[in-house]
Predict the structure.
Amino acid sequence: MATLLPSSFTKNFNSSIDYPITSFQTFAIFGPKLKTEQTHFRLSTSFNVRTGSPLELKAMKEPPGLTQKLDKNRLDRLAESENGCDLFEDLKHRFLRFKKHKFEENLGHFQNLAEGQAPKFMIIACADSRVCPSVILGFQPGEAFMVRNVANLVPPFESGPSETNAALEFAVNSLKVENILVIGHSRCGGIRALMSMQDEVDSSSFIRSWVIVGKNARLNTKSAASHLGFDQQCRHCEKESVDHSLVNLLTYPWIEQKVAKGELSVHGGYYDFVDCTFEKWTLDYKGSNFGKNSRLPVKNRFYWC
Amino acid sequence: MLTRKIKCGPVVFPVKNVSDEDKMSMFIKEDLPMGSLEEAIEGLKKFLSDKDDVAVAQIEKLITGLKKTDLNECDPVKRILEGFEHFKINKFDKYPELYKKLAEGQWPKFLVFACSDSRVCPSHILDFQPGEAFMVRNIANMVPAFDKLKYSGVGAAIEYAVSVLEVQNILVIGHSRCGGIKRLMTHPEDNSTPFDFIDEWVKIGLPAKVKVQAEFGDLPLEDQCKHCEKESVKLSLRNLETYPYVQMGLANKKLRLMGGYYDFVHGKFELLEFEPHFHHLFST
């Protein structure tokens, strides 16, 4: 059974370090070599490993993918490139770095984890590339079962099966996590889409069909914050949506039972990547007094900056 | 009387009357890597051969204290705060230009589908940094086929990543010992109680299960599951092709589909590229 290492262990897991390449091994690659009638997978070509170039954190140079916005020429070259050697090379080196500096250096821990996971947390976070909880909250392998979707939404029980509640069912009933943390964030594109929606739902858009899960948060925001500018309304809705997700969590009978017994705690969080602050609050479950229409009772609200 | 502090993992103990200062100082040095509790105990045991009875008694007391440390105790607030502080100090504050740019927008090159399993976060295994990968995580890293009525969550992520963010690569990563795949392979044949939501979700992978059972039905369950973990990745890649914006991206050669498989038992990663089934469906 996996055990949680003391939190100081996390200090070793700092990926923003220069790692010189000292050894490598060839990937095992699966799949047929050429296209066949049934499958259309092909091998990457054998890797020609670049030697010598230090693996600097890309942030030290221009941010990856930001100022390197691909102009047309680069797009064409990407299209012409037969097998994208550079991309595969990059992914390969990333994995080998992980293997050398984390996996092999903590082999006992990873061997334990291979036998089973026992995370204390279930996290529901946005798919946004800037808000991975493993990065911003330092969750290490084995610590957090994670769902990531557009706008970190939790649909209510009555909406029927979805990928999010399948994960909830597994985390709560099988893994028996002790904490669920829903993390919203600043400048969320999904919340912005929710706030921008006209009243008629555009059924051809998946984004709209999905973010409508947060419609109560939008309603509350419109009534409470209509005097604010649109950006501020979005910010209000980002936090309101987390609260509504917490309410929706309690619509699942097996979640409410565990919360009532004190076996499960439900928390909300908000990561502001403009100022680098993090807010966290915990649902203060009060049994029969808890209802959808009442203001969400919270406790232990923290603000870290 | 010499007072020193030993840092053993997260715990700091005062130690007095240390006779062999050199030995202890080697252990106490400030840059001692923070290892596991077991390593700390092993390190202390080395000093038990010391002839100084007082020191031996103190060390034995330390070891007893460490052994009592309940590794399973977890203050969630403390854990989150420590993690956030570490990120702020070592990343956010260290690279202000990067994070300032990221605050204005994101331009990830990847859309990644990975399992919700706590052991397989792509930010660890492939070292994705903030801004690099729009990341969906669900049970068994599944991508269902295009369906306007169902699975709007996955559809929304694909639509956003491909049409709005214009990612250039979609990577679906499967992994070893996947609980979701195991459920797919064993239920309902094992007559276990249904899970309402899990079973409904993993049945997306049924075509992979059927294929694996046809080809490898004589193998032990564990091996069949491993085959299904990989076959499910291929199925997800084929399902991605059913999304119109993905088809268009593939036809225009602006999008590449890849599958990955992380084996955390052996510490291996496999990568393959998916050739588009459709050619020139659309041309610009």
Q: What stands out?
A: The first strand of chain B starts at residue 3 and ends at 8.
